[in-house]
From TrEMBL, chain A:
Organism: Roseovarius halotolerans
Similarity comment text for this entry: Belongs to the binding-protein-dependent transport system permease family.
Subcellular localization, as worded in the UniProt entry: Cell membrane
Pfam annotation, one family: BPD_transp_1_N
GO CC annotations, alphabetized: plasma membrane
Main location (coarse class): membrane
Protein name: Dipeptide transport system permease protein DppB
From TrEMBL, chain B:
Protein's name in the database: Putative D,D-dipeptide-binding periplasmic protein DdpA
A GO term for molecular function: peptide transmembrane transporter activity
Signal peptide boundaries: 1-24
Example GO BP: peptide transport
Compartments, as annotated in UniProt: Periplasm
Source organism superkingdom: Bacteria
Record GO cellular component, one term: ATP-binding cassette (ABC) transporter complex
Keyword Signal: yes
Family statement drawn from the similarity comment of this UniProt entry: Belongs to the bacterial solute-binding protein 5 family.
Pfam family of the protein (one): SBP_bac_5
Classification via InterPro entries: Peptide/Ni-bd, SBP_5, SBP_5_dom
Amino acid sequence: MADTTHGEGRRASSFPPWLKKTLATLATVAATILGLLFVTFMIGRVMPIDPVLAVIGERATQAQYNQTFRDLGLDKPLLTQFWIYVTDVLRGDLGESIRTGQKVTTDIARVFPATLELATLGTLFGVVLGVPLGVIAAVRRGSWIDQLARFVGLIGYSMPIFWLGLVGLLIFYGILGWVAGPGRLGIFYQGIVEPITGMLLIDSALRGEWAVFRSAFSHIILPASLLGYYSLAYISRMTRSFMLEQLGSEYVITARVKGLSEWQVVWGHAFRNIRIQLITVIALAYANLLEGSVLTEIIFAWPGLGQYITTSLLANDMNSVLGGTIVIGTIFVAINIFSDLLYRFFDPRSK
Amino acid sequence: MKKSFAAAVVASFMAAGLAVPVAAETPPNMLVIANRIDDIKTFDPAESFEFAGADVSRNVYQKLVNFDPLDLDAGYQPQLAESWEISEDGKTITFTMAEGHVFSSGNPVTAKDAEFSLRRAVTLDKTPSFILTQFGFTPDNVEETIVATDDKTLVLTLDKPYALSFVLNCLTATIGGIVDMETAMANEVDGDKGSEWLRTNTAGSGPYKVVEWRPSESVLLDLNPNFGGEKPAMERVIVQHIQESATQRLQLERGDIDVARNLSPEDVAGLEDAEGVKIVDELRGRLMYWSANQKNEMLSDPKVLEALKLATDYEGMSGSFLKGQYTVHQAFLPRTFLGALDETPYSFDIEAAKAALAESAHPDCGAIKISVRDAQERLDIGQSLQNTWGQLGCDIELIVGTGAQTLDRYRAREHDIYLGAWGPDYPDPNTNAGTFAVNPDNSDEAGATGLLAWRNAWGIPEMTEKTLAAVVENDTDTRREMYLELQREHQKVSPFGIMFQQIEQNGMKESVENFVAGGATTAVSYWVITK
């Protein structure tokens, strides 16, 4: 017994550091997702909503109720139910959605690309416009452009997205007719492109179906701009405040005294030092959009993850909620790991 | 709150003259509809029991007997069965199948398909199966009670001599849809009689077939190439899931859709002057009611119930926040049903209500909790009741929850007052009479959660007998009279305050003709629509 333990100890200590680190990260990821699942599972089970009724409806007989109660495994202890669920998940089976009657994996494969496409475009919009706006606002502090940035930020923080979405639809779709209406694609283009990634812009471009691409772009541009606007408000505000901190530092004064151009001072020195903080901000903004923006999805009839999880939660469709939770949990963990890696790349100290 | 504010702002933009120009046109042979269709779980007629599912099913599956959408008042008509005969003892119905009906697969419709479909619906025992099993069919006896003696003849043997109209009305429900046996069995997995496959695919002989379904997104129907009837004008029907009324309105005004099915009263009002758009009102079967738990001592006092019925502002509500969407109706059978009672004996009269309360054992009223789900119209009704019942001195508290939470409490008989809606399951008076006016065993152990009378702990052995007598009455006029009498008594003594019947207001292009949502008895029929 003692020998075996020693042997294992020696083998463990012979692991290279990168492997140890990877294993530790994987263990943390697994523990995080398991914990998340446990909490969501328990919340679902203790909610004052009867999951059986969600399946069979209010007209079912008591015998049908009892049968479904057993079929769902609800007659077993809670921990046993959780154990069964986790072992199913490990086999890749997230169960069936009681709301759509389909496998949760099939549902998520359908709704997640819609959210991914929208969130990515929205974040891109927010970063491309928000970062320069924040930097310029900090450099020209108190100028009209700073006021504009603050105004944009204020509107972004205070206007309900539901309201802006409806007004946006009314103006750009209803009155001006510049963009297409709700949904992901015009009805005449549906079913033309065989899915590859599930993201219509990418799939139609890969297949060379440019008419479909135009229709998809015309549909996504308004909701993506709307989400991008909210990201822009957040990103520009944070960029401004990070830059202000840097621009007041001694090394910036020194750089100016040395006679460096304003461009070099701002972008070559100050901005370089806020990159790491910005990565965190952008990663968080992206992760928030990936969770799905429920109201935007509802107004634009965008069949995404946020709407899927919310509707499922209200219908007590816990398999769908748990499936969605796994996806969101994994996204958050993945984005965290990715931003950690970027930290190491950009910040020599962390090496 | 946020939503209604936003909708109001958009409405005010529109009212300010920013009218939406009509731009696009849908093709003449294609119908595009915006509707809330996220309740569809399955297309299988043996299992489907949701509104949007019934809309699809009616256009895909034919039944032995069915309603003519252009003459709903005529009642059931021959469809897959060309005629039927009832035996002298009233227990055996023999159907003769009609010629010329073909499934979308190309297989002809025979009595064997009808036998397979009805037996399957009973043995699978899904929620709507009670519509058939109430005639005595069970998984154990279907081989003797539902029998195709040859390709043309189907014989149903009932456990009692029910009214023929009752049986045939039930066969027009979604569960009466006849499925292509060969196709279903070709897709059978583990003895499921094709259930898994039929959830997402269709195998009917109706005018359309489902080509694609994306849950909570869209349903695409194309013509059944083998349809035996007259070719419908709409060769393709697309139903898009659009949650928001304001969005549906914009799409209709832009011309991107032909029909908008979930317009709010504000948007309906906004569309009244819109060019090229019309609103078509249709009376549906859904009732809005409140009911009082008879386990609550105060609420079981007949005089208190009378006071509450008199202190409900029916006209006030239907003339304001429910305007156009609900009409006052106070009996358990929706108008247009056989035996529906039109009388409205209660109107808002606070003095009469106070007088009734003074005669009760609770002249000062007391605390009453109203369970209501978090839907705008129900909250509005709840607040109106809170206001007018408050004038009697009652201390009203609204307990707001999700639909599932509120329903759980109701089924567990834990409410004081439940504020809710009820829609018929099949187009026969027994669908509502059998739940509002039947409760043979009022004990908790009976667990008759499907009966509204039981949920309200209202034990009514005598009324139950009268209701059950009506389902075996074969003379239609006598049957009608029996229901009229039942409803009059129910209005007077029951703990149900039935208030309104739903009106569906559909917005559509001026050119759309014959859009029939199904009235109070059935679902939508796309095959008669032209534009």
